[in-house]
Write the structure tokens for this entry.
Amino acid sequence: LTKSSTSDRKKDHIDLAFASAIAKQDGRFYYEPVLGTHPTPNDKLEGFNIAGKQTKSPLWISSMTGGTELAGQINHNLARACNEFGLGMGLGSCRILLESDKYFKDFDLRDTIGDSLPFYANLGIAQVEQMLKEGKVSQINELVGKLRADGLIVHINPLQEWLQPEGDRFQERPIDTLNKLIKMANYPIIVKEVGQGMGPESLLALMSLPLAAIEFGASGGTNFAKLELMRNRNGDAEYHEELAHIGHSAEEMIEFVNDINSANNAFLCDKFIVSGGVKNYLDGYYLLNKIKSEAAFAMASGFLKHAMGTYDELKEFTKLQLEGLKMANNLLRVRE
Ligand SMILES: Cc1cc2nc3c(=O)[nH]c(=O)nc-3n(C[C@H](O)[C@H](O)[C@H](O)COP(=O)(O)O)c2cc1C
């Protein structure tokens, strides 16, 4: 960024003053300009501990896909940002690695991210169900080991699969598949949706399992039901349009989790990655203040936009998010 001269700046101010009036305030916050400083080097963000690995901030990079040339570069950029800023990340679906090692290097990020930060492999519940059925669950354990991942994220995406012509069909309830996997896995497990979120009964069921965390994958951002409808490979999209509107926002899911917790306080998993429709640090700050459990917030598409080009672009974006979060900590209070 170049600094403008004072006279240039004053001229900008005059030119832009009339255009700058905004009609509506962000009603989520109290703004307390008298009580905080700008972010200083002494300001630290609170990290997030997941299965024994500590991050330096409560920001997580949500799972995005691998297996194409572009994905390899995106993944390496993301892992580099994790290393530089002390973040954790989940890989996109590693299903392709169950078939061959052709794309292994796109996912092989442990050396880039470093040993001390959380780094998770990812598979769909359909693959887990299939591997269990075929008695091949040891292949999943090997996958996690080979990637030197800390554990596995299982995504549960029945609506997306339903709308995909090539989509999988679940024969068993995901909760039953998860119960079986947990018995056979020797690593931490995170469970997520992919952009529709989940309702209170599913959250309660997951909170009753010994998971490392539950990631929301809430509705409000990337929407795979809509995405599959736009692909419309079945030619029947018009009959399913409304499915894209099914789901739960991150804010609503936080209400579910807080309600579940206030009714009962003995859960095996009370740790969350709040994701889905999180656009920036202001959303993240707001949501983290609303949830009463230990949590990080996460973005997928928000990072993707800046991870496709040079690392410097992603670095700038990530830095800006973390500085913004510190500013929010100092000057904003979330309204009850
Ligand atoms: C390009 C892309 C690929 C994704 N691939 C996966 C995946 O392989 N596994 C998964 O669990 N989620 C996947 N997701 C879903 C994200 O992890 C996240 O739950 C969802 O995009 C909502 O977050 P957002 O609104 O910040 O994008 C993908 C998202 C994007 C944008």
User: Anything to note?
Assistant: The longest helix spans residues 311-331. The pocket of flavin mononucleotide is lined by residues 62-65, 92-93, 122, 155, 192, 194-195, 217, 221-222, 275-278, 299-302, 304 (CB under 6 Å).
